[in-house]
Write a structure and sequence with these properties.
- By secondary structure, the protein is of the alpha+beta class.
- The chain has 2 domains: 2-126, Immunoglobulin-like (Sandwich); 180-312.
- Helices cover 39% and strands 27% of the residues.
- It contains 7 helices and 11 strands.
- The strands form 3 sheets. The protein has a 5-stranded antiparallel beta sheet, with no helix packed on it. It has a 3-stranded mixed beta sheet with strand order 3-11-8, with no helix packed on it. Strands 5-9-10 form a 3-stranded antiparallel beta sheet, with no helix packed on it.
- α3 (187-199) packs antiparallel against α7, α4 (209-228) packs antiparallel against α6 and α5 runs antiparallel to α6 (251-269).
- The radius of gyration is 28 Å and the shape is flat.
- The termini are far apart.
- Mean pLDDT is 81; it is low at 1-18.
Length: 317
């Protein structure tokens, strides 16, 4: 076990005298692997008149998910208490990643509670799969099974069809047809229909999780682009989660969307087993509905502002 002793002076107590709180971390033994849970131990030393527990939102972030806190033992001596906790967490980023500071609450009967933070520390996250020797080896010779003649024939047929269409179509027919047609559905209705068709497709039954969750995220990204003009298709998951603030949705909705996108990334790129795909499809439908309500509320506010401005300026249509 590798041990790191990290101390923090707590000066936020209402009493005149300062109190000392220190933390000692015992880092996990062996390699910490991407998307695999790991455990570390934290020993807290604090004044005996208090008890200690992790705060409600103790830790977590884009690089780590804290799974649980467990108290292993507790002892008291010489006016101080020493509690040892086991923290279970899961990493979501490769390389040197910072495990965030954990907020702890110290409380005592008849006294206001105070907080202390154990310092952040670096963790080296290893990939799921071991590196190869660097040589790329083909199972089959390259391009062996590509039907080049059929592809060339199909390309020529397409080019011929395009030429004949442009040569003999009535002038202005395409532009007139496009101008006359307008999709009456809202972005939410289109996204819901796409999701329903995807959920009913044979991908789930065929256990093609990567393709299915690629479709799930495409439905969400396309909806965000149509409803909020967010260029979601060109963004990474991290960039998109930051852009979700522009939707006007509440914090709970944006956090659920971020968790959904992270899970989809693990399914697509880390070969994680998704579990209940039907429940994830239902959760995505709820997310789409919450974003749609946020968009409707924003439009209602804009309409109210415009109406008020017109009435105050004496505007008459």
């Amino acid at each position: 076990m590798k041990t790191a002793a990290l101390a923090l002076l707590l000066c936020a107590l209402p009493a005149a005298a300062e109190e000392n709180v220190s933390f000692k971390l015992t880092l996990p033994k062996g390699a910490v692997v991407l998307a695999e849970p790991f455990k570390l131990q934290l020993q807290a030393t604090y004044p005996a008149k208090y008890s200690i527990k992790p705060a409600t939102a103790a830790a977590g972030g884009e690089e780590f998910e804290v799974l649980s806190f467990s108290r292993l033992n507790s002892a008291a001596a010489a006016g101080v208490k020493i509690d040892t906790f086991e923290i279970a967490a899961k990493p979501f980023a490769l390389g040197q990643s910072t495990f965030p500071a954990v907020t702890w609450e110290l409380y005592a009967p008849g006294a206001p509670s105070v907080q202390a933070k154990s310092p952040p520390f670096l963790v080296d996250i290893k990939p799921i799969f071991e590196k190869t020797d660097g040589d790329i080896k083909d199972i089959y010779p390259p391009f062996r099974y590509i039907p080049w003649l059929w592809l060339l024939a199909a390309l020529l047929a397409v080019l011929l069809a395009v030429f004949l269409y442009r040569r003999f179509r009535p002038a202005g027919a395409a532009a007139a047809a496009y101008a006359a047609w307008k999709d009456p559905r809202t972005p939410y209705q289109r996204a819901r229909e796409r999701l329903e068709r995807l959920a009913a497709s044979p991908l789930a039954a065929a256990e093609k999780a990567r393709e299915l969750y690629t479709g799930f995220t495409s439905v969400l990204r396309l909806y965000l682009g149509e409803e909020f003009s967010i260029d979601a298709q060109q963004m990474t998951t991290a960039d998109l989660t930051r852009e979700l603030k522009r939707t006007g949705a509440d914090v709970k909705t944006t956090l659920r969307a971020r968790e959904f996108l992270h899970k989809a990334d693990l399914v697509k790129f880390a070969k994680m087993k998704p579990g209940d795909t039907a429940a994830d499809a239902a959760g995505l439908l709820e997310l789409l509905g919450e974003f749609a309500r946020a968009a409707e509320n924003s439009r209602a506010v804009v309409d109210q502002v415009v109406t008020t401005a017109k009435s105050q300026s004496g505007y008459k249509p």
